[in-house]
């Protein structure tokens, strides 16, 4: 079984503010890039959206025929999906402090996609020279620039 490498990133200018998300999927030396933007959002929502969009793409185009290794520079996303989410589910989508989980709509969708696609999760240090992480950051900036005035 071949492995598909997926890189994601999200960001904002201001938090909240205009934000963008991006992913790069590497399949046998062919890269597929996608990105998008929202006028008013947060950095964490864009990081989650990037991963959701990437996994939706993989689910549509590869459907269990490959292994997916997903790279994110967001500790929030990686820790959330690999550690915290099970407790959130058990606690009725409440944190240890008994508060509603932020971005619950996106976490629930990511939880579904994680179960369907079954990626391996990998954290990569942002802005540290990894070419595909840097490419995702460039795409995020292009996405934000596409909706920012002036």
The proportion of strand residues reads: 25-35%
CATH topology term: Nucleotidyltransferase, domain 5
In this structure, how is the largest beta sheet organized? 5 strands, mixed
The number of strands is 5
Number of helices: 4
Instruction: For the record, give the distance between the C-alpha atoms at the N and C termini, rounded to a whole number.
Output: 48 Å
- State Rg: 15 Å
In the CATH scheme, the class would be Alpha Beta
Secondary structure: helix percent: 40-55%
The SSE string, one letter per element, is: EEEHEHHEH
pLDDT average, as an integer? Answer: 93
List keywords for this structure.
about 150 residues, alpha/beta, Nucleotidyltransferase, domain 5, 4 helices
Describe it for me?
- This protein has 150 residues and is an alpha/beta fold.
- It has a single domain, classed as Nucleotidyltransferase, domain 5, CATH 3.30.420.10.
- It contains 4 helices and 5 strands, in the order E-E-E-H-E-H-H-E-H.
- The chain has a 5-stranded mixed beta sheet, with helices on both faces.
- The chain is globular, with a radius of gyration of 15 Å.
- The protein starts with a strand and ends with a helix.
- 37% of the residues are buried.
